[in-house]
């Protein structure tokens, strides 16, 4: 049974997709999320939606992930659109085994921290 909170997330997700005028196929191309998964998320057939998927769909539809989650009332994203490179990185990390994920994140943090200090 779907709860009130989950119902709100599903409704906002479906609204974001509809308002953006995107088909599930187009959204799949923009996010890398299979269209069948997007359809299940937008219809409530799957209620445990991974946060990375919410973030990718929000970015592709121009809304705030916080709005989809019901954490804020402001619908529009404040120019936090993810670049294609960042979207690809998120997808790769999401599908990577846990040990690879931890190693990749640690390496990225090390490189970015060093880069900040050298500038």
Describe the protein's architecture and organization.
With 119 residues, this protein is mainly α. The protein folds into 2 domains: 1-80, 434 Repressor (Amino-terminal Domain) (Orthogonal Bundle); 83-119, no CATH class. It contains 7 helices and no strands. It has helices at residues 4-20, 24-31, 35-43, 51-61, 65-69, 84-95, 98-118. Helix 1 packs parallel to helix 4. The longest helix has 21 residues, at 98-118. The radius of gyration is 16 Å and the shape is globular. The mean pLDDT is 86.
Layout of helices and strands, plus pairs?
Elements: H1 4-20, H2 24-31, H3 35-43, H4 51-61, H5 65-69, H6 84-95, H7 98-118
**Looking at the chains present, what oligomeric state does this protein adopt?**
single chain
Q: Describe the biggest sheet?
A: none
CATH class of the largest domain: Mainly Alpha
Overall number of structural domains: 2
CATH-defined fold name of the largest domain: 434 Repressor (Amino-terminal Domain)
Using only CA atoms, what is the Rg?
A: 16 Å
What distance lies between the first and last C-alpha atoms, to the nearest angstrom?
Answer: 53 Å
Low-confidence stretches: none
Q: What is the tally of helical segments? A: 7
CATH level-four homologous superfamily name of the largest domain: lambda repressor-like DNA-binding domains
The percentage of residues in β strands lies in under 5%
How confident overall, as mean pLDDT?
86
What gross morphology would you assign?
A: globular
Q: What CATH architecture of the largest domain do you see?
A: Orthogonal Bundle
Helix-strand topology string = HHHHHHH
Total strand segments = 0
- Helix percent band: 55-70%
